[in-house]
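Bump. Still looking for Carbonate dehydratase structure tokens.
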Amino acid sequence: MIRKNPSGQLPHISPKAFIDPTAIICGHVIIEDNVFVGPYVVIRADEVNAEGTMEPIIIKQDSNLQDGVVIHSKDGAAVTVGARSSIAHRSIVHGPCTVGDDVFIGFNTVIFNTHIGNGCVIRHNSVVDGMDLPEQFHIPPMTNIGPHFDLNSIEKVPPQYSEFSESVVSANNALVEGYKKISNEF
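Sorry for the wait, here they are.
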């Protein structure tokens, strides 16, 4: 469902993107080419700041938001998901937040008030809250990262995880094409 926010803003969605009919895209949202938005995703840009304005939620080209992902922002702060990034099932990205290019965010992960550098891999059931991650960091499953976390205790992304992230992007890019071809069949 595509709908206006209370400020009257409608999403801008590339005709080359695929939005599942069960997804809700609301307000000041920009979705670029070849983005896959899976079933039951919610992207909601509707809160304003003290001045009554809001920044957009931007999903850049070739990215994918898998089943049940929620993206929202507090007080109209910006959220950007970079190009070729994957956000896996039931994850939450809450602004203010920037997710770089070529990032993989695993199942049930929560990202809030952070900048995730390009090429990071954040595995399932993790939380990154209030601490920025430099490029190419690998966050193991079930890791909680906060303002006082020692990033020196974490390794760079191993090659097998980079390859896995690339394969997820490729698979979801193929889904965009496939679903767009059959979108009028039901």
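The longest strand covers residues 92-99.

Edit: fixed formatting.
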